[in-house]
Structures are given as structure tokens and as C-alpha cells.
Amino acid sequence: MSKLVVMKFGGTSVEDATAINRTAGIVQGRRDKGLTPIVVVSAMAKVTDQLLSAASAAGRGDRMGALAITARLRNRHLETACALVAQAVGDCSLSKMIDAEFDSLDEILRGLASIGELTPRISDMIVSVGERLSSRIIAEAFSHRGLDAVHVDARKCIVTDGQHGKAIPQDAAIELRLKEHVLPFAEAGRVCVMGGFIGATEKGVTTTLGRGGSDFTAALVGGGVDAGAIEIWTDVNGIMTTDPRVCPTALRVKSISFEEAAELAYFGAKVLHPATILPAVKKNIPVLVLNSRNPENEGTRITSLAPYCRSPFKSIAAKRRLTIIDVVASRMLMSHGYLKAIFEVFDKHKCPVDMVSTSEVSVSLTVDSNEKLPEIAADLRQLADVKYEGRKALICMVGGNIRGQNGIAAQVFQAIRHVNVRMISQGASEINMSFMIDEDDADEAIRSLHDVFFADPDPEIFDVEALKESSLKS
Ligand code: ASP
Ligand code: MG
Fold first, then answer.
1. Residue among 322, 318, 360 nearest 445 (CA)
2. In testing the pocket of ligand 1, which one of 48, 138, 220 has its CB within 8 Å of the most ligand atoms?
3. Which of 211, 220, 235 to mutate to test the pocket of ligand 1 (most atoms within 8 A of CB)?
4. pLDDT per position as a tens digit, 433-443
């Protein structure tokens, strides 16, 4: 197996000097095991958001507002960088680079403020500063700590098309570029450090892969160099059987399939967005979700096929603040084009629909509660009778093993027999069972379901040790 391991650190794992030093220790740990890390980093926590607000302030003509944001960002980067290399801000070796980046950023913002129009191309240019800086600071900090690190400009490797803000990576070109700019260093045993999220077109125009895009970069790099594993370092212990704040007996899921993780992502995309790790899954490279604040923890392993698990479900997720819309039209009975007309209304308002259930004359749909609802309802009323009701929660139970098992639905609804269920759906993937209830019932329902389905957890798949330890302590 390849000794190459792609290690991606998110914003909170590089938010300040303490976090970056911790990150260096984790990378060193992998080297000590004989592996060769390729490190992909996000911008320091919140920096992307702040750069985007600076860009939009300048785009509105608010020059002062934009420059005030970058002044704070400049200080934060200077202070972090200089703390990492143990120098005073005045004579810190990195400060020239940081000042030069912010000088040119400020120039762009001033120009933008006088033109008053923010284009996607300029937005990408501005927002890329976050990862450009974090990756250079981190490479330097690693070297300062004795790790043989080298900075690689991600824009030389991640070739994309020209769709700014959500550029599409060009796999074949990326593979070639990685061979040229990354592999020679890695083969020499050096640690490459590159920014996530950013790329460039063939012509060298800076682009970005979309919010949260650093995971995507990690998968592209891992796929491109045929890494042995991809590690996504974040600030949670991986994927859990349910939200531990709701249910204190929640367990860490040690192993989950890509397909299952994808179903869950929609509910708590906090951990990672599985679509972004597709390049790794296609090549059968395992992806691990790990906690940089608790690096000893084994996290969650996401693989293309699920290992055998004797429990039907892997995890229970909930999505709250939903609204259910009932569309009832007796006169539409047996006519065609009815669903199309309904969906056209949602399309017109650019409103995503989560779940749908239909009978011959009625359709129920759920959407995120939003301010467009009265307008959507008004348009739907041209077609049928419409009622809508907010404060709903969608409970989603995911597990590859429910496929073809009898009696699971009966167990689910027995567990929540005291709760009023408004909609039920089992998707075509057959690995997810979802239903809609009142938001106020959600916590109780999750606890009851968790009690039933995780009473005797499979120790191969769930971290039962943690539970034993905590019950000994209490
Ligand atoms: N910094 C980018 C963002 O906040 C990309 C990432 O962190 O994944 O969206
Ligand atoms: Mg992220």
C-alpha cells in the first residue's frame, strides 16, 4: 500500500498558533510511523467568511468597511505567524509575505469599491487569500519545528474549469500536475503543504471549488497520487450514532460506507460533504474522519463498501425547522402533469424540496422554513388547496443493513408509538428510513429510537469501549 497519506486540516484545526502547533505534532506522528504526509489546509477559522464580507462590502462601495476587515485579518495572520516562528511581529520572517499579500488585497478592494461591482472572478481572487496565507504560514511553522516541509501553491496543481465560485476540477490535468509539483518532494520524504479550496484554470486564473472545498482538494490530491488513505482532521470524534447533546449514550461509528455517509451528510453536513470525497471513493481509498483535539481517537473510517454490521442502523440524524406543505386537489384526480406543475412552483422560487409523499389526490412536501413560503403557497393555490405548517423535524435513520430485512419499520414505529407521524418515506436507496414529526417531539423520539436500535451495539462497528469507560466514571 502506498505510504502517501493526505492529511486535511479544517479551519478550526489551524485557527491559531496553538492549533497549528498541535497540527504539526499530528503530522510528525504520521512521519514517525513511516508514512509520507501531504498536508492540505483550510484558511484559519472564519477567515473565508470575513474575506467574503470584505469583498461584498467593497462591492457595495463601502471601502472603509472592507479595509477595516482586512486590517483585522492582517493582524491576526501576522500575530499567528510570528508566534509560530517565535519572532516579534516587527522582524518576523513571514511578515513581509503577509504584508505584501494584504497590500495587494487592499488595492483590489479599493479598486472594487470605486467600480462598485463584484464579479465572481474577483471574489475568487479575494477569497483565495485565506488558503494562500494559511498554507504558507503552516509550511513555515512546520519547518521551524523541524519537519521538512515545503509549500506547494495549490493553484499549480488543482486545474479547474472557469466556473468561479464552484469550479469543476479536471482530473487528468490534476494528476499530471501532482506528478510534477508534489510527487518529487513526497518521494524525497518531504512534507508538502498546500491550501485546500483553491485552484486555477489552465491559463492560471484563480478559482475556488465551493464552500467547504478543502475536503474536495484532499480527495482530488489523494486520488491523483493514489494515496493509501485520506485523513480529514476536524474537531469532532468522527460520525456518531446520533447527536450526543440529544442522546448522551450516542456512540462513535467506527466504520461506515460512503453511501451511508452520503445519506447522513445532508442532515449534519458538519462533518464532511461526501460528494467531495467521491474522487477517493472511486479509487477505493479509505477516508478517515479524525479529531485534531483528540488525535488518539480512531475516528470514523468511510469506505466504498460497508463492512458487515449486525445492527440495522448506523446512525439517526434529524433536520429541524422544516415546514410541511400539503397540496390537495381532488379535481386533479387521474390527470397528468400535476406533479410537474407543483414542482415548477418550487423551481420558480429556487426552493429545494427535502421529502415528498403522494397519494392520488394529495401531495405533501417538506422544505426548510423560509420567508418565501407565503409566495410559494399563493402560487400553489392556483393549482390546488394548500396548507402549510412549520416547526417540523425530519428524522432520518440510515443503515445499509435495512435492505431486505423484515420488520424494521414495525420496530421503528413501535419505538415512537406515542408520537404523531406526519409523513413517511423510504428512499430508493433502501438504506434510509425517514419520517416527519413535530419539532417538539424530536429529542424524545431520537432517544427512544436510539434505546431500541443501539441497545446491543455491534462492537466491530461502534465504539462501545467509550460507553463502558463513561459508565464506570459516573
Ligand atoms: N475555507 C473554505 C471554506 O470555509 C474551504 C474549507 O475550509 O473547506 O469554505
Ligand atoms: Mg469544512
1. 318
2. 48
3. 211
4. 889 999 999 99
pTM of the model: 0.86
Contact 17, 241 (CB under 8 A): no
Give the three-class secondary structure for 243: coil
Give nearest CA residue, ligand 1 atom 5. 212
Partners of 287 in the β-ladder:
230, 302
- Three cell numbers written together for 199: 485552484
Q: Exposed e or buried b for every residue in 91-107, given b needs 16+ CB within 10 A?
A: ebebbebbeebbeebbe
How far apart (Å, rounded) are the C-alpha atoms in residues 377 and 389?
Answer: 11
Q: Which three cell numbers stand for residue 105?
A: 488585497
Q: What is the pLDDT of residue 473?
A: 55
Q: What angle do CA 4, 280, 259 make, to 5 degrees?
A: 140
Q: What is the mean pLDDT of the chain?
A: 91
pLDDT tens digits, 202-216: 999 999 999 989 999
* The C-alpha cell that represents 325 in the structure block: 406543505
CB atoms within 10 A of CB 151: 19
Nearest Cα residue to 230 out of 4, 470, 473: 4
The amino acid sitting at 409 is: A
